[in-house]
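Backbones bend. To wit:
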Amino acid sequence: MNVGIVAAGPVHDIPDLKKVNHIDYWIGVDEGANVLYESGIQADLLTGDFDSIEPNRLESIKQNTKAINQFSSIKDETDLELAFLEAIKLKPTTVYIYGATGGRLDHAWVNVQLLTMFAEKHLDAWMVNSQNEMTVKYPGKYELNKDLSYPYISFLPLSEVVNGLTLQGFRYTLEDQDINQGSSLTISNEWSEKKGTYFFNSGILLVIKSRD
């Protein structure tokens, strides 16, 4: 099952969801519920406090939804974190998160860090905006098919250091290299083969596919 999560980020930073045809289960998060509604997509689940949606519009959205988890605006978790917990329960194949970047930097940065929730469960999850797809990985070996939509790929430490990073099938290869947080060594790589492989021994790695 592929799960799509639509958060409350700026609409201009969200790809055209009408063209997204690989999602089996949609979750709308707060204002993201309105984005799904405007895209003509029926949400399988809405979650959040919905304090940013006008009441009459919210009622129309709810009538076009299969299930709703509505919370108080006073809570410890963000609406997106609660949506991530719901997605994890579904044991998905892949999760795609839209509307989680752009706008406020504090929200965008914590949302990237929240990707560790999926990495800890060894679930594949990608945060998507109009120019990038990003994921977080814990130590292991991974393969990525060449993506013509995103010609550049970067491997950045989310932890203080990523130990033993090896890159194969990319234009700039590495062999058992330690990468410290703040280093630009692994920015803007490219695929040299149809499939690239990367693996590392310890740390937390942020992988970003990008286009200009």
The chain has two domains: 2-130, 140-210.
